[in-house]
Backbone:
């Protein structure tokens, strides 16, 4: 992915934090979506049917009924996704160059916080 990003971002180092963050986000996104979808499908159909009986559209039902009812599951999915992203140290370590410093510029290489711990 780094060569692709280097064609758009001048001055991007060979090993950098930007690409490793994007790749980690791509890796965890399907996990987040799957867990959130399971939480939303667990909402009882009686709540959806009640909303439809009151004249809600599908969008209104999803936003005003299903999402608040599944908020705990969606929050849990978010926290599990974040913990998985923290656990994906090898992807970040390889893409970021595993340099012994903490960088504030995402265009440079650095080490992961997990490796410092």
Residues:
């Amino acid at each position: 992915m780094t060569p692709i990003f280097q064609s758009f971002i001048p001055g991007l180092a060979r090993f950098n934090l930007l690409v490793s963050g994007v790749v980690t986000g791509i890796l965890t996104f399907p996990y987040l979506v799957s867990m959130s979808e399971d939480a939303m499908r667990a909402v009882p159909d009686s709540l959806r049917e009640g909303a439809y009986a009151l004249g809600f559209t599908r969008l209104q039902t999803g936003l005003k009924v299903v999402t608040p009812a599944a908020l705990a599951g969606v929050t849990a999915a978010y926290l599990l996704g974040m913990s998985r992203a923290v656990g994906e140290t090898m992807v970040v370590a390889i893409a970021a160059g595993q340099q012994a410093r903490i960088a504030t510029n995402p265009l440079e290489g650095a080490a992961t916080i997990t490796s410092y711990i």
Remarks:
- The CA atoms of residues 1 and 19 lie 7 Å apart.
